[in-house]
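=== RUN LOG ===
request id: a7f3
mode: sequence -> structure
chains: 1
length: 254
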Amino acid sequence: MLREIWLVYRRESTIALRNPAWIFIGILQPVLYLVLFGPLMERIVTSTPGFPPGNAWTILTPALILQIALFSMFSGIGIIAELRNGALERMRVTPVRRISLLLGKVANNAVQLFFQALLVLILALVAFDLSAPVAGVVLSLAIVLLMGITLSSAGYAAALMLKSEEAFIPLLNTILLPVLLLSGILIPITTGLAPNWLYTISRINPFTHVVDADRAAFRGDFAMDALFTGTVVLAVMAVLAVIWGARTFQRENA
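=== RESULT ===
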């Protein structure tokens, strides 16, 4: 099975390297937020009560690399193209396990996400006033990778069910916009900043807890209260997403 995953991963990474524009497009938006929104965030943090501990860069940077992971769901667009041009059909007749097809593709997305997140971190460390413990950065990257695995698995499953870019892309935009706004990626949603109704809704959003855990790890707060809820929520979402993706691959490729 590991060999099958490796073969699928190698194929996907070769295709991605032939068209690196998508990799850079994926990192462009977080970099623009970092460069254009970060300096504004510095003044907001210093003059507005209710923000989490840390300066603007320790609040914004981990959230922006999670934003890259959030858009991993768009990886499903590629599999719709493969479904249309027959590439997925040709892979289906091979003896490769369906779960290996999924995990090979997800592994490729995870590796791309890792390097994109690393570039954002290096830019924040070199060009801006970012200071974070090494253990916190490593844990933050682990959270981001697990988030990427979760959402790319869900993206592949949803794309295989819809089988159409015209339906898939509007669905993702409808889902990701409120998730992005309610997770506090750009501005943390705390009791000191948000009205009570908005804060309550944000607590229902599971990605809010993941963002909080990522920020806690980035500032070196490894206490159980800071990390427990977010890591548990992320682990449950990851398991459910991979199971959903695997079953969808088996069903749609039966």
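=== NOTES ===
The two ends are 18 Å apart (CA to CA).
The CA atoms of residues 31 and 120 lie 6 Å apart.
=== END ===
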